Structures are given as C-alpha cells and as structure tokens.
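Observation: inputs received (chain + NDP).
Thought: call the complex predictor directly.
Action: predict_structure
Action Input:
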Amino acid sequence: MTFIAVAIPVARADSVTRALDCARLARSQGADLVEWRVDTLAEDPSGPAAVARLVAESPLPCIVTVRDESEGGSFAGSDEERIAMWQAANAANASCAYIDVELSTYHTRQPIQDAVKAIAHAGERPAEDRPRVILSFHDFRGRPAGLSSRVAEMWADPGSTISKIVWTARTARDNLEAFELLAGRAKPTIALCMGEHGLMSRVLAPKFGGFLTYARADDHGTAPGQPTIHELIDEWNFRAITARTKVYAVVGHPISHSRSPAVHNAWFRAANVDARLFAISVAPMWEAFKATLAEMFGSSLLDFYGASITLPHKEHAIRLVDESGGTVDARARRIGAANTITRAADGTLVASNTDADAVVEAVGAANIAGKRILVLGAGGAARAAACGLAFAGGSVVIANRTSSRATRVAEELATAQDDFPALDVHAQSLASLATQQFDVIVNCTSAGMQGGEARSENPLPCGVKLDERTIVMDAVYTPAQTPLLIHAASCGSVCVTGEAMFLAQARRQFELWTGSPPPSSL
Ligand code: NDP
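Observation:
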C-alpha cells in the first residue's frame, strides 16, 4: 500500500493546537500519515516541548522533519537544536514512526548521524517501536545531477529504512525517471516530482510501489503541485490504482484548462476501466512533442495506451504516427490533423480524428445533408468541421480572418485524395458574407474563448442573416455562452454549445481506447 501523507508546517509553539486540528481533518479525509514540519519551531526554546505534544497527540502515525534551508525548508539553526527535536519526539511515545533527515546533512555532520543512529537503532525500546529513518534529497530547481548515484547512496546506507528523492520536473518525462527509480528500488522509496509537470508521479505512486505520496488537507501544501486529499482519493480514485493501471494523456500547450482528465477519469471509473488520464503540457515544437510521446509510448513500465491531442500538436500527431510506422486513418489523413492516438494490441500506433464526427453529431446529422453551411476559421477545428459536414452531405462555405488559409483548406478538401472523394467545400471572404443566409453556422475560430485574445469578439460578420431556422454552433466551449451564441439566441436561432462537440469527440476517443462507449449515465 502507498500511504497518503500530509505535511503540516508548525512554525511556532502556539500553532500546535491548530496543527493538530488540521491533522484530524486530514485523517477524516483519508490521510494515513502526517509529517510535522517543525523547521522554525526547532529554533524556538519551547520547540522540544511543542514537538513532544504534537507527537503525543498526533491523530496519525507521524514523520518528524526539521528541513534545512538548503533543501527548501526554513531551518537555519544548530545541530543541537535539531537533535533536541528528534529526541523530544522519540521520548513522547511510539507514534513518532519516522524521522526525516537530508542525505547531505546526515553524511556531513557526524553529531547528527550519531544522534539519528542512537534514536533509531539503540535504546531500551523494542526495535519495532523505534522511529525509522527516512534519508531524503530535494531539488526545487530541477532534476539534480547524479540522480541515480544519490539514490544508490541512500539505498546503500544501512542506517536508513526509507529513501526519498524529490525534484522539480522540467517536463512530463521526469515522471518516467521517478517510476524507473521506484521499479528498481533496493528498499522502500519515495520518488516524486514537484511542479506543474509532476502530478503523474504523485498520483501513480501506487502503480510503481512508492512508499508514500503527499497531499494537502487545505489550500497550503508544502511543495508545488501537491493535490488535495479529496482530489487524490475521489477524483483520481487513488486507492484503486494497481500495477496494471493503464495510462492515457491529453497533450497540448497550454493544457491546464483542459476538461479531458475530469471527463475521461469519471468515465473510466463508472465503466470499471482501470485507467487514468493526465493533462500533459508539451512545448509547442515538434521536437518536444516527439520526444515526450515517443518516450511515453516506448516505456515498458508506464502502460501508456493512448493520447488525446490538442492545440498545437494535432498535425504533429500525424507525423509521429507516420514516423513510427503506424496507421493514420483516412479521415485524419484527409483533415491533416489527428486528435487521438491509440496504441493497438500489437503495439503499433493509430491516429484518428474524432472532431469531424463530433461536429456532425452536435449539429445533428439530419440538419446537414443538402444544407448550406458556413464554417468560420481555417485551423485544425475548421478543417475537421468542414470535412465532417461536407462528408455528411452539406454544402460548405469556409471563411477566415486570413482568407488565403481558407482558400487553401477549400482547395485541398475539394480535391479527391486516395480513396476519399472530393468534398463540396468553397472559400469566401468574410466581407462577402454580409446579407447571405445559411442553414448552419459553425464557429471554429478561437474568438470568444475565455483566456484568448478576442474573448469578447463575435466572429460572425455583421449582416449575415440569422433567424429561428438557423442552427448556430460554437466550437469554443469555455464559456458556454459565447458572444456568437448570445447574438444567435437574440435572433431566435437554435444554439449548440461547444460542450456538445467536446463530449461527442471525447466519447469517440473513449471508444477507440476501450472498445466500448462510455456509460450513458454520465
Ligand atoms: P487554430 O489555432 O488551429 O485556429 C484558430 C483559428 O481562429 C484560425 O482560423 C484563426 O484565424 C482564427 N482566429 C483567431 N483569433 C481570431 C479572431 N480574433 N477573429 C477571427 N478569427 C480568429 O485553433 P483550432 O482550430 O484548433 O481551435 C479553434 C477553436 O475551436 C478553439 O477555441 C478551440 O478551443 C475550439 N475547439 C473546440 C473543440 C471542442 O471539442 N469543442 C475541439 C477543437 C477545437 P487566422 O488564420 O487568421 O489566424
């Protein structure tokens, strides 16, 4: 079992009561261990009495840590002060299960090493009641040099029971290194990555037999990137993670706003699929995308079975699958972009595009054949929408702020390719749209998108006629009510939100990955 530990900083003696309340809350939420972080308390003359109370009244087995400034803590006192804290904790009672000491401190300061050994390996108490030693190493700046030799040094020390290495991930690939360390461990090990790229190492620690992971009980964690206990247990279903848990990701840049983890993880759970999907930020270059995805799909440890691909990597997805010798399905090839990569049973990769069918489903297949349809935009979403809508029998006009891009998309889609027919897609300038009327209008620009540069803009040119017969869909799904949809509603038109498209493309991804549609109850 991988424990969930909550680190609670206790800065002063008068904070002890509040810290104990916080630990009780953490226990009620599902935490297994509490780490008393008594860095500054150790420099207070009343520190030993305060830590003795913390340990005596601790609602959970505890770790006592006096973290040095050199490794991200706030302790700048003497060896004697630190030793006095451990001795007081040890004397309190047997619930002081662990003491944490930095590898560098332990190996360079003989009095500390002697004191730790005396507490953990001598004295009158039976061995099982003595605190165990966690030797630790932290790097808040990035991946430390000599990572594996440091871990080997910790594993080799006979005086310690548990080894802990924590560093700030530079990319998602650092998580894989943490998993490799756990898989090759010589003794119980904690290997975690901090920061925006490190969540996977925190959530998947049980898959690789990590000794513990950290979570926070409130808004104040002790390291960047810690999830709350609630997120870990309820949203990530942490207790059900097994060595066989499959891993998926949504890959993009930026990606923190993505709803895909919440949606897919809820579906995995409801369908009893032992899998988790993570949001992974990959810098917008092909090289970064290729390096990350190739390493994840190539990992013999990770059980990485698929990826949802979003801006700006949809074209990179096709190139990756082509270069890997995999299969790009006809629709994705025609669109020139894929939003889904699936690892097939034989290990080969398959690229698909579920956006095109998602637009058709959101608009309603019955509203497309023989209808005049306007697609605004010429990026990945617009290409998918134009392809899907024209393939479903619509007559599509595509118009974009940069009109040459719309012309290029129309020319490509209107030309037969391999076994894919020529599609009824034509480009028009935005200016020429005034006074025209369409049966369906689909916005595939990012105008109206929260956080975008044109948050309050309506991309539909003035003069385009809307009435109650017009169906208006916005691919933008945050916010649900975009300037375009607000305008369309005021004209009495039928409005379709980007949420409908988002869920439709996600459902198809789920089916590609698991072989079954997601549960309809969600
Ligand atoms: P791209 O970056 O590939 O394309 C963006 C498009 O928006 C371009 O045509 C660009 O025009 C146009 N554009 C950007 N700003 C403006 C503006 N101020 N006024 C008019 N046009 C503008 O993005 P995608 O095609 O991948 O995505 C477009 C939108 O669709 C995004 O908001 C995305 O979130 C959403 N989307 C929703 C999905 C869903 O499931 N609901 C799925 C996929 C995408 P130009 O060429 O002139 O730069």
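Thought: report the result.
Final Answer: The mean pLDDT is 95. The pocket of NDP is lined by residues 311, 355, 377-382, 400-402, 405, 444-447, 449, 454, 457, 459, 475-477, 498, 501-502, 505 (CB under 6 Å).
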